[in-house]
Amino acid sequence: MGCCETRDAPANKEKKNNSKEENSHSKDLKEFKLKHEPGMSFCLSESDEIVDDKVQEIIEYSSTLKKDSRWIQIIETEHIIVRRLDGSKYGDKFPVFYSKIYFDNYIMPNIIIRQLNDAKERKKWDKSISDVENIRENLDEIVVYTYISAFGYKGDFLEKKTVLRRDDHVVMVSYSIEDASKPPIDGVSRGEILMTIQTIKYKNDRTVMTMITHQNYKDVFASLFSYMIPTKIKEWGMAFRKRVHSLA
Length: 248
Prior knowledge:
This is START domain-containing protein. Strands 1, 2, 3, 4, 5, 6, 7, 8, 9 and 10 form a ten-stranded mixed beta sheet that branches. The protein is built from six helices and ten strands, in the order ααβββααβββββββαα. It is of the alpha+beta class. The termini are far apart.
C-alpha cells in the first residue's frame, strides 16, 4: 500500500497545483468583473464577437508569437519590460517589440483605452508624436491618424483600431489601412503598422497591459535608428503610467 501511495503522490500533487491555478484564475476573473464591469462603456468599438478577419488573424498569431523562444530581453524594470524579436510573418526585416507595463493597483480599462485612443487625451501626455487625429469612430471601429516629426524624420500612420472585451481582459488590435480622407503627403513617409495588439488584464491585485507591435517605417533613416526603439518604449510607458495613475 505504501508503494501505491508513493506512486500516486506526484499525480495528486499535480492535481492540487492545477486546482490552485484554476482557483487563482477564477479569483482574477471574479475580481476583474467586480472591479471593471461598471466601467466597460468605452465610447469606442466594444464587442464580444470578432467580425474582422484581420483582427482574428492577429489575435491568433500573437498568441503563437508570445511563445517564440527567440525573444531577447532588452529592458526590465519594476514597472516595464521590453523585448525584441527579429521579424514576424508580416515582415522579417523589421524588429517586433513586446512590452509589458505594470500599474500599481486596479485601473479601470476605460481609463486606459481613452488615454490610448482619444486624440485630445493622447496629445496631453504622449510626447512621442507630433499630432494625432481621430478620423472616424463608430460602433465597429476607430480610425486614427498619427504624425511624427523628430530628428529629421517625418512620417505618419493611418490605422484601424478594434476594441474587444473578453471574460477577464480587454484586447485592442490595430493595423494600417488606406482612407481617402487622409492620402499620403509629399515629403512625409507613410509608414505601415503591420500589427499591434494591446491587452489589459487584472493580475495579482493590479492591472497589467501587454503590447506587441510591428511597424514598417518605410524610411531608411528611421530604420537605422530601430535600436533606439526599446528606450523610447520605456520612456513612453513611464509617461503613460504617470498619466493613467493621475486619473485613476
